[in-house]
Amino acid sequence: SRETIENGSQGMYSFLSGRGVTGLGYLLPPPDSDxxxxxxxxxxxxxxxxxxxxxxxxxxxxTAYAGAGAxxxxxxxxxxxxxxxxxxxxxxxxxxVYNVDTINRDRAAEVGLRGKFTTGSVRHQLxxxxxxxxxxxxxxxxxxxxxxxxxxxxxxxxxxAAPPAxxxxxxxxxxxxxxxxxxxxxxxxxxxxxxx
Length: 196
Hints:
By secondary structure, the protein is mainly β. Helices cover 0% and strands 62% of the residues. Strands 1, 2, 3, 4, 5, 6, 7, 8 and 9 form a nine-stranded mixed sheet that branches.
């Protein structure tokens, strides 16, 4: 998939103090929806993914399954941070915009076994599974912060130069084991699921 931003973005308006700017402290009437505070900005975000899943019937009562997936994403340009802080009634503002480079990499896998059996008068539906996930991400940005802006009569910001290419700074691995057993008691009138 691909998401593209060209010549502008939605804006976030703050009337509270922050970043050394004393906010107005109350809301103003919103500017016309055709007003674009971020003319000249652009960005793109691309995703590439793949999912595989399969099952094998071992016999009438038991089935093994497995799945794996991967997604890689890269974003550059205007991705976030389109905000202003408004200190005055006529809409003067301090503008903030960021040129971002970001990467995300996710890999996941799962294996499992599900089946049914009976103990006495109780029927069981059992599922056993193991899963693994590796998430990696990183980002860099360059900023234009605090430039003079007006929410009712905006000027085009100077879009910052591209930042250095992002490298992975977060690398997390998560694993899990799960077991569930649904007990069918009294011919389906009572179902109890136990899990861990």
